[in-house]
Design brief:
This protein has 13 helices and 54 strands. It is mainly beta and 1123 residues long. It has a 22-stranded antiparallel barrel. The radius of gyration is 35 Å and the shape is globular. Its main location: membrane. Keywords: Cell outer membrane, Membrane, Transmembrane, Transmembrane beta strand, Transport. InterPro entries: CarboxyPept-like_regulatory, Plug_dom, Plug_dom_sf, TonB-dep_OMP_SusC/RagA, TonB-dep_OMP_SusC/RagA_CS, TonB-dep_rcpt-like.
């Protein structure tokens, strides 16, 4: 059988098919309302003919035709030569190249303006005479990092001086001879030069300059031009993440608008911060979703040297594509990748000294004994003195520390200094076909615990981590790219056999006068019936070794389908992650003794209080997990009408499967699965009017089939006012004015409680009574958990934002107002009366919270003098979450209600001061216990004449700050740079408990005393509001230590978080001899000083009594070498 075809007809059919396919895609995107912004091109067409014209005449005409401000100093212009050229419909970029070629000036796009500066240290040559017609014609395309064609880019043969502009599709043709240098450049992008070596096709990928209007921002499952963004998002400069600390979470709070973070411990390996995006809006998990290179992972242990970008997505428009995982915000981290060019090697080393930011100060032994006598006398006026004068005198003299110790447990247990050190070496480079980035990192930190040199093991705190990152990109074909990535870390940590909480609790409870640290004969002290010896717990309990390892791997294949449909591309990604944890505990106890007195010969008489173990014990624990992740996406990016209309679209499918590798039961062995579809479409008209729609349709295995999947849409609109024609007269004053707004619904599937709550559980229960005799008990079956048709939480979010850039780009301001209504929060019913017969109240999507607030960022840059630059940055966030429904029964009085109050609101008694006299007590509401002058007087809220639970009302602000802010200046002068960063929190308080508020609280009598114990009520004192009310012994004989606002203290602080000074050597002969491009020396101070009215312990540790490993301050010195 034979077939004949008409070639022309076939070509027409193929062309028609392509046109129809494009029209279908455009129709689909327009019908779904999916819109995106196009950056206002500085590739605007210019028509200009000049002959021997001064640049002082040319630049104003260019500004008039394009509306782009060109900033320069007239003194520079007097040094330039006249120009002659004729351009018809050329790009602004091309004309600027013609104006500055072979001139002592250069141009750069800064904050939307063209800035003209003098070239530095360069010898200018006269224009080279034109050569004969080149033998070769070179062609290709110029695109950005996302593969978008750059229309109007300049392609310059630097040897012949011939320049051409790229077409709408980014294509070009230019003549060249072997050995010619071809430069590709475009306003807002870094120029790229390639040597011609007979390769007739030369494609160029240009990298956007930081801060240019062509900047590309990372968004959910992709990238967008920054000018086109509608969603609320913030990013952190990667250099701000390079703090001298192991945990990356500690670098975020106060550094970026919208993020609230608090650090509750400084213990190496356990020193991460709690991070919340725009506060807490739920009773359940509020942790944000973290994606590293597109995969859900943790970021605590990433080496900051390997981070290319760090982005925070905050509103529904930015997070809706993540569906049931996006309600708490999203953190996107991308690791570094290689760039084509000569290999670059970077080496960084630093060494730091660490100290506690603040440790509690306890009263000395004499003060303790005298205060105990006073408290005992207050409780027992007619009793004998608790501690004799002889005991107090002996303690003060210190002649017999075995029987009359006076121990400062903090000084005896902890060193003054520790150390940390960091090292990283990375290399990158490659060609147009293959690029690579390789990195190896090391971090080591020692704790501040003391050790016993006689022990045959090491109980010191030590944390060591090794990081590696390897990213490889291969261009298999012109339209096919493959990215490989493998990274991970291994940590090894050593700790005492008892945990930090136990050790610090013992130090808080053990008074200074009971036992010494160690008896003079070497025996370990321990009083019978008393709290454990803190030094014994620290140095004699053995050791625990923890090993963690994490391996991340992924492969991504991207195929450009532009040969079928212009602007179309597809990619697929697969990743496998493996996590393992291994712990070995070698713990023990030692014999302890207590010296009761001395015999006639003056020798100590001991009684043994504990028989220890002879050997170190052994215990092992393991855990781990594995995760598989797949993702496939189709992307469309196309501009029409000479760039006036830009449309993008994305459709994506993804799924993940995480398995507990050491599951101990059937439920734990079931993988945690996630599956979904995401879609986005954007539209922009002349970078003025922006619109965007995002969709997430996904679900989790946790819920029943009927409630497993949900649709999460978001909608956004933007208006770049500064790009309007009517705004041009103000363009010199305001370079950018943009408004944006969004609304959407996102979900949270991390609702807590048990998995598979839609399935009832049945348990066997003993002890059912039957009949009149209580002895008639039977066993039976009972409903353990009731099946409820639960699903994810739903968060309806509204965001209104404004962006402003003024003062010729020196001042930038971004402000966002947000509101969120979180419904369907997973709660256990608290409104079921007992007579229903339900033993375990069921759970359900019952809670509701409303959160609102504002966050913002402001930046100011100024060149104060030649080579002297100044920058001031600041950010803030304020939020307040109000409970709308909590699934509990209503209280009898309105002041007891949780509904309508702040999430996390504290409740307790309201203090009115201290009782001043017996008459004052008689005329006040009745309080529990033996009440005397100097005790706390409480407000009788319900007026029934007695103080009880019905008088508990709202007190304080809560433990999570409502306001977090940060600001800092920086200066640079020639090779010098200096900067500082301040972090602050406000609208937060500390609720004291235990020894934090109650002297002698251990078993009603024992307990260490803070050094501020002198700030107390005494009969002869005049302080109406001392720290401590009347002391008693035991301290449980009155209601002074009931939950009340008396024990709530202001938790606000301002911390100097970072101070840095550095000097960079560059362009030095000795550097070239060593093969270096530059060499930097720097010194950093971290957590340098804290300003707060709260002085007992580091204020950021929060509620309680401060019995935690304190935060650390670090002074670090280092070098940074770039080869």
């Amino acid at each position: 059988m034979h077939f004949t075809t008409n070639a022309a007809a076939l070509r027409r059919a193929e062309l028609l098919a392509k046109i129809l396919l494009v029209m279908k895609m455009i129709a689909f995107l327009m019908l779904t309302g999916l819109l995106q912004v196009s950056a206002r091109g500085l590739s605007q067409k210019v028509t200009l003919s000049v002959k021997n014209a001064s640049l002082l005449q040319v630049f104003p005409e260019l500004s008039r035709q394009t509306g782009v401000s060109i900033l320069y100093k007239e003194a520079f212009m007097k040094e330039t030569a006249p120009v002659t050229f004729q351009v018809t419909g050329g790009s602004l970029q091309m004309v600027l190249e013609l104006c500055t070629r072979n001139q002592p000036i250069q141009y750069k796009l800064e904050n939307g303006n063209i800035v003209i500066r003098r070239k530095v240290a360069e010898v200018f040559q006269a224009a080279m005479p034109a050569k004969d017609t080149p033998r070769f014609t070179v062609s290709g395309k110029v695109v950005d990092e996302q593969g978008t064609p750059l229309s109007g880019a300049t392609v310059l043969n630097k040897n012949t001086g011939k320049a051409v502009a790229t077409r709408d599709d980014g294509g070009y043709r230019v003549g060249a001879d072997i050995g010619d240098s071809i430069q590709f450049s475009f306003v807002g992008y870094l120029p790229h030069t390639v040597l011609f070596k007979e390769q007739l096709v030369m494609n160029a990928v240009l990298e956007a300059e930081s801060g240019s209007m062509k900047d590309v921002a990372v968004v959910g499952f992709g990238r967008q031009k920054r000018i086109s963004l509608i969603g609320a998002q913030s990013s952190i400069r990667t250099e701000d993440l390079k703090i001298p600390a192991a945990n990356l979470t500690n670098a975020i709070a106060g550094r970026v608008a919208g993020v609230i973070g608090v650090q509750r411990s400084g213990e190496p390996g356990f020193d991460g911060s709690q991070i919340y995006i725009r506060g807490i809006s739920t009773f359940t998990s509020s942790s944000p979703l973290v994606l590293v290179d597109g995969v859900q992972r943790t970021f605590n242990n990433i080496d900051p040297e390997d981070i290319a970008s760090f982005t925070i997505l905050k509103d529904a428009s930015a997070t809706a594509v993540y569906g049931v995982r996006g309600a708490n915000g999203v953190i996107l981290i991308e690791t570094k990748r290689g760039k084509a060019g000569t290999p670059q090697v970077n080496l960084q080393l630093n060494q730091g000294i660490t100290q506690f930011t603040r440790v509690p100060e306890f009263a000395d032994g004499v003060t303790y004994l005298k205060t105990a006598n006073e408290a005992y006398r207050n409780s027992n006026p007619n009793a004998m003195q608790l501690y004799s004068d002889e005991k107090i005198k002996a303690t003060a003299e210190g002649t017999d520390p075995d029987l009359h110790p006076n121990v400062n447990w903090i000084k005896e247990m902890f060193n003054k200094h520790g150390y940390n050190r960091r090292a990283n070496v990375n290399a990158s480079g490659g060609s147009e076909r293959a690029t690579y980035y390789l990195s190896v990192g090391y971090y080591n930190e020692t704790g501040l615990y003391k050790t016993d040199e006689l022990a045959q093991y090491n109980s010191a705190i030590r944390f060591t981590r090794y990081n590696f990152t390897s990213n490889l990109s291969l261009k298999l074909f012109n339209n096919t790219k493959v990215d490989f990535g493998a990274s991970g870390w291994i940590s090894d940590a050593n700790y005492p056999g008892r945990g930090a909480q136990d050790i610090w609790n013992a130090a808080y409870i053990m008074p200074p006068t009971i036992i010494p640290v160690r008896y003079s004969n070497g025996l370990i002290p321990q009083a019978r019936g008393e709290e454990a010896n803190p030094y014994d717990m620290l140095t004699q309990s053995g050791y625990i070794n923890n090993t963690h390892s994490q391996l991340w791997s992924n492969i991504r294949v991207t195929q450009d389908m532009g040969n079928l449909v212009k602007g179309l591309s597809v990619y697929g990604m697969f990743s496998f992650d493996n996590y393992n944890y291994h712990q070995i505990s070698r713990t023990k106890t030692v014999d302890t003794w207590f010296a009761t007195n001395r015999d006639a010969d003056g020798k100590l008489v001991f009684e043994q209080t504990r028989v220890g173990t002879s050997y170190l014990g052994y215990n092992r624990a393991n855990s781990g997990s594995r995760q598989f992740y797949q993702e496939v996406a189709v992307n469309y990016n196309r501009s029409f009408g000479n760039g006036a209309h830009e449309v993008t679209g994305m459709v994506l499918y993804n799924q993940s499967d995480a398995t507990d590798a050491f599951a101990a039961d059937f439920i734990s062995a079931i993988p945690n699965r996630y599956q979904g579809i995401a879609a986005r479409a954007t539209y922009g008209y002349k970078s003025r009017y922006l619109a965007e729609v995002n969709l997430g349709y996904n679900g989790s295995e946790t819920f029943s089939k009927e409630s497993r999947f949900g649709l999460f849409p978001s909608y956004g609109l933007g208006w770049v006012v500064s790009n309007e024609e009517f705004f041009r007269p103000l363009a010199s004053s305001v370079q950018l004015l943009k408004f944006r707004g969004s609304y959407g619904i996102v979900g949270n599937s991390s609702i807590g409680g048990r998995r598979f709550a839609y399935i009832s559980t049945v348990t066997q229960r003993d002890g059912y009574s039957f009949g009149r005799s209580s002895g008639n008990t039977y066993s039976g079956l009972d409903i353990g958990d009731y099946a409820v048709d639960v699903t994810w939480e739903r968060a309806a979010k509204v965001n209104l934002g404004m962006e402003l850039r003024s003062l010729r780009g020196a001042l930038s301001l971004t402000v966002d107002f947000f509101m969120e209504n979180r419904t369907g929060i997973f709660r256990q019913r608290g409104d079921l009366p007992n007579y229903t017969g339900i033993l375990n109240a069921p759970f359900g999507n019952l809670g509701a919270v409303r959160n609102r607030g504002v966050d913002g960022t402001v930046t100011y840059n100024k060149q104060l003098a030649r080579n002297l630059n100044f920058e001031m940055r600041g950010n803030f966030v304020w939020n307040r979450a109000i409970v709308k429904q909590d699934a509990n029964a209503l209280w009898p009085y309105p002041w007891q209600q949780v509904i309508g109050r702040r999430l996390g609101q504290r409740f307790g008694l309201t203090s009115l001061g201290l009782f001043e006299s017996k008459e004052d007590i008689a005329n006040s509401a009745t309080q529990t216990g033996t009440i005397q002058p100097g005790d706390i007087k409480y407000k009788d809220l319900n007026g029934d004449g007695k103080i009880d639970n019905y008088d508990n009302g709202p007190i304080g602000s809560g433990s999570i700050p409502e306001i977090v802010y940060g600001f800092g200046p920086s200066f640079s002068w020639k090779g010098w740079s200096a900067g500082a960063w301040f972090k602050g929190i406000s609208n937060v308080d500390i609720f004291l408990n235990g020894e934090g508020m109650q002297p002698f609280q251990k078993e009603g009598s024992r307990g260490n005393l803070f050094s501020n114990i002198n700030d107390r009520w005494t009969p002869e004192g005049n302080n109406k509001r001392p720290w401590y009310p009347r002391l008693t012994y035991p301290s449980t004989s009155n209601s002074n230590y009931s939950s009340s606002d008396w024990w709530i203290k202001n938790g606000a602080f301002l911390r100097i978080q970072n101070v840095e000074l550095s000097y960079t050597f560059s362009k030095k002969p000795w550097l070239r001899k060593l093969g270096m491009n530059n060499f930097r020396l720097y010194a950093i101070g971290y957590n340098v000083a804290t300003f707060s009215s709260f002085k007992l312990w580091d204020v950021e540790l929060g509620d309680g009594k401060g019995a935690q490993y304190p935060l650390l301050k670090t002074f670090s010195f280092g070098i940074d070498c770039r080869f």
